[in-house]
Amino acid sequence: MSARISRLDRAIGLIPWALAVVFGAVAVHLLSLLALPALAPHSAYRRLAANLPVGEIRLLPRATPDNPGPSFSDPFAFLAVCRFDLTGGPLRLRATADGDHPLSVSVRLADGAIVYSGSDSQTPGGRFNILIVTRSQAEAIDAARDEQDEAAAADTGELRVVAPRSKGFALFRLLALREGEADEVAAQRAGFECKSEKPPA
Amino acid sequence: MRPLLAATLAAFGLGLAATALAVSGEPGFDPVRLGPWTSWPQLGAPEIDPYERANVAMDGFAPIGLNEGLSFIARADDLGAPLDARCDYTISGTDLPARLWTLAAYSEGGRPQANPANRHGLTSAGLLRTDSGDFVIAAARQARPGNWLPLGSTRSFVLALRLYQASTSALSSAYDGLSLPKITRGACP
Fold first, then answer.
1. How far apart are CA A129 and CA A92, in angstroms?
2. Tens-digit pLDDT profile for residues A12-25
3. Based on the structure, what is the number of domains in chain B?
4. Chain A closest-CA separation from residue B35 CA (Å)
5. Which range among B42-51, B103-112, B128-137 shows the weakest confidence by mean pLDDT?
6. Residue A68, domain extent
7. For position A152, what pLDDT does the model report?
8. A126 in reach of chain B (CB within 8 A)
9. Where is the DUF1214 domain (chain B) (predicted)?
10. CB contact under 8 A, A177 and B126
11. Both A7 and A77 in a single domain?
């Protein structure tokens, strides 16, 4: 009888430890999950943009078996990537589609979240003129611009993208219609722009 | 002191194992399944959840943005049999609601497959079609007349179909009316 009571006491004594393990495991799981995008060694940001100077465009070769790029890259997609760090000021992207080859632009954070994506059919004249800013930069620009400036910005088709975090990359995706269009695609990619701008006063 | 150390180690082990398990499966929740084709529309959306974000980072891929198009993956044929590069496949359908669509074959890890023809996919712009706009693609290791998608030397493979500037919305019930190509297995060794 006393041995049974002693076993029961020991089992009851383990309950707080078991609960501590469960809560600890949940905490470790959630923290590691949230940290993974920043730590993953092969994330798209690390592969494509981490070592790229801010404001510089890197033209990526199309995906092949020897140079596969990010997993499941489309072999007909010619990508160009441009890293941003908005702590030094906003970043402006410019690109113009030729009307034949579909062109799209996406703005992604370092953790992979896509904050903007759009294609040339959704922009006036197939032209992208995107200003990536932080919330405070957007407010500063609004405060500094008068109505005339706003109208001028609207005329240029400027699209302002407010990034919730300061680091990330922009991805230009230009599609070849068929095999062997590298020259046409290269000429169009040469017109892509990615420039840091002075922070608004 | 010893129970504390054991409990700490157990919590770390279980927590990390749960994370490894969470990022080892499919890349997202709420997949859209149309026959053998699967898509995870939320991967390209701003409101991607932390599990999907971790999965995308670990897999190292850059999903198509919501307004860029739709992306589908097939790992099996229409009858549910895993895709096997030793077999011939017929991929047939009618034109898809997109400005341009592409079809490509990959290894399980998402690399384009090496093949003697050095071609890794097809686009809607380069396809031969019937008068009604239907198309038939032959996926095989050996060259085929017409629309040929070369397969590589590895046994299992994955097909990826991308609809760029699709006229269907990635987050609406428009998927219901979308008719994707059928994947039919032909001769097998």
1. 7
2. 888 888 888 899 99
3. 1
4. 20
5. B42-51
6. 44-196
7. 67
8. no
9. 68-167
10. yes
11. no
Residue type, position B42, single letter: Q
In 3D space, the residue among B135, B122, B151 whose CA is nearest the CA of residue B92 turns out to be: B135
- Residue B46 sits in a domain whose CATH number is 2.60.120.600
- Is A170 part of a structural domain of the chain? yes
Same domain, A165 and A80: yes
Q: Provide the domain limits for residue B135.
A: 27-185
Domain membership of residue A55 (yes or no) is: yes
Does the structure's ipTM exceed the value 0.90?
Answer: no
At residue B143, the pLDDT reads: 92
The reply to whether residue B160 touches residue A117, judged by beta carbons under 8 angstroms, is no
Number of domains into which chain A is organized: 2
In a domain, A62, yes or no: yes
Q: Tell me how long chain B is.
A: 189
Q: What is the pTM of this model?
A: 0.85
**Rounded to an integer, what distance in angstroms lies between the CA atom of residue A109 and that of residue A130?**
15
Q: How far apart are CA A48 and CA A169, in angstroms?
A: 9
Whether B41 and B32 have beta carbons less than 8 Å apart is answered as yes
Q: Is residue A201 part of a domain?
A: no
Residue A164 sits in a domain whose CATH number is 2.60.40
Q: With helix as H, strand as E and coil as C, how does chain B read?
A: CHHHHHHHHHHHHHHHHHHHHHCCCCCCCCCEEECCEEECHHHHCCCCCHHHHHHHHHHCCCCCCCCCEEEEEECECCCCCECECCCCEEEEECCCCEEEEEEEEECCCCCECCCCCCCCEEEHHHCCCCCCCCEEEEEECCCCCCEEEECCCCCECEEEEEEEEECCCCCCHHHHHCCCCEEEECCCC
Same domain, A61 and A21: no
A10, A17, A22, A29, best to mutate vs chain B, most B CBs in 10 Å: A29
Q: How many CB pairs under 8 A join A and B?
A: 192
